[in-house]
Amino acid sequence: MDLAPLLELPSLGDGLSRLEPVLREAVGSGDPFLDEVVTHLIAAGGKRIRPSLALAAATSRGRRATREDLLGGVTVELVHLASLYHDDVMDEATMRRKVESVNARWGNLVAIVAGDYLLARSAEIAASLGAEIAGLLARTLAALCQGQVAEVQAAFRTDRSEDHYLETIAGKTAALMATSCRIGGLTAGLPSGEVEALTAFGERFGMLFQLRDDVLDVMADAETLGKPPGQDLAEGVYTLPALRALADPHVGQELGRLLGRPLDVAQR
Ligand code: GRG
């Protein structure tokens, strides 16, 4: 995704560079091993989309990001990081952000507990920002889990539908992006109408972001993706492009042949 137009916003570039030390400070435990594990993916990069959304929302009226705004961005990035740690355990992924995944390097137990630790830190920061943000963050965590369970469930169902897919991505991706925008609006103390509009923008941005990701999984080459294309279907994840393709029995048969196992034809 080309974030350049967003990053050209002077206030956002300033906020993102000031976010990094706050992010590292937030995960510091004093234990050298835990610190190494929890900074592994922070150091590896990542696009910082969720804090970008929070900071863009918070500075949308042109003011400089405050420490509260930065902490809002940190709290959502920590949730995202925790979800990556846990997701890689579930998928047995070996690479993340172009480096070895945490589970591949230190094992599943460490990856799960380190993900839990990141969530705990995120919750602590959200609580410091007030009850409204703490409650919002907790509801978003529930939505992420529901989205993830819905995705796993789809692999065992034959009545897969586009509605089910849309519900899945609303939970696993769009909920946190909507919350990122909302938190930015809240830490900046914007009027409620603006907070609602920013939240609606974040939700739609998140849906489109995941749709694009899923289309790229079937259309892009291995080099662009950093993994073999068609990985979603190979893992039993039925995304919208796969559902559309499988609705044609010939395409479904061909995909099944390529993957070496029969695939269910989606019902729409
Ligand atoms: C532990 C919070 C928590 C949840 C448990 C594992 C799980 C339930 C949910 C996983 C949800 C998940 C991994 C959704 C995919 C989200 C997504 C679009 C990831 C890629 O985001 P990018 O492209 O990644 O912003 P970078 O690396 O750039 O930050």
Automatic annotation (TrEMBL):
Keyword Magnesium assigned: yes
EC number: 2.5.1.-
GO MF: transferase activity
Domain of life: Bacteria
UniProt entry tagged with the keyword Metal-binding: yes
Keywords: Magnesium, Metal-binding, Transferase
Major enzyme class: transferase
Required cofactor(s): Mg(2+)
Family statement: Belongs to the FPP/GGPP synthase family.
Official protein name in the record: Polyprenyl synthetase family protein
